[in-house]
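tool=predict chain=A
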Amino acid sequence: MIKKRTGEIIVTNHKQNELLKKLYDTAYGRCLLKVLTLPAVSKAAGLYMDSPLSKPLIAPFIRKNDIDTSQYIMRDFRSYNQFFTRRIKPEKRPIDRVPSHLISPCDSKLSVYRIDSGSVFAIKGSHYRVCDLLKNSFLARRFEGGYCCIFRLEVDDYHRYCYIDSGRKSDNVFIAGELHTVNPIATKRYNIYKRNSREYTVLHTDNFGDVAQIEVGAMLVGRICNRHGVHEFVRGEEKGRFEFGGSTIVLLFERDAIVPDPDLLKNTAEGFETVVKYGEKIGIAAE
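tool=predict ok
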């Protein structure tokens, strides 16, 4: 379930959800998943989406998903992926520059969870370990008692993402894996944050302490395109992009680093994801 920050509940794509339920909740669907989640399949899909052969897919996608093209820098795209990674007009996503304000790194559906003393966070009754997400038990312990923010991008979201503050970052660490959908339907049966291909870095931020940022690939999303290795960054600077499909960004915060906005915590507790936009305030630095 999805809710806007105004309180309005959004009706999701029922046809897509029904298809995913057939894939994840039936025996024959799970057999098909073994093929669809292979990185090789994603790579093949990516090659097609990079080619001029995919260009005819653009116009139907815009119509089906009611994309407001006036928000974007539109041109004669040579492939579907060129369109999918289109840039938004800067004035359509203003960056909150108040240093103590935590901003969203992307357009997405956000859920916020407390990380307990065992470095575990719970989603709809299922428990996930931070060390499984990072493959690094030492690093995972640093986030005990903090917050886990999960930003789920759907196909009609803007698929570029930015830095949440100014600071410097470590190099990127890639973890190979499968490529399940990031739709909540999949989390009922699979720990996608443990199984999916992903890439993480530690952001040494000016206002929120050390933050782990993890980009998680999804079904038919084989490429997580981060722009920098070791790098000094500024708030709102583009960090990277996802190519084709839905994806997820996870932010891990240390204990007493941030205070999420109350509506986000309330919505998550009630089972709702909250629509947030690239650069908007979603919390504050803890005093």
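The longest helix spans residues 14-25. The first strand starts at residue 2 and ends at 3.
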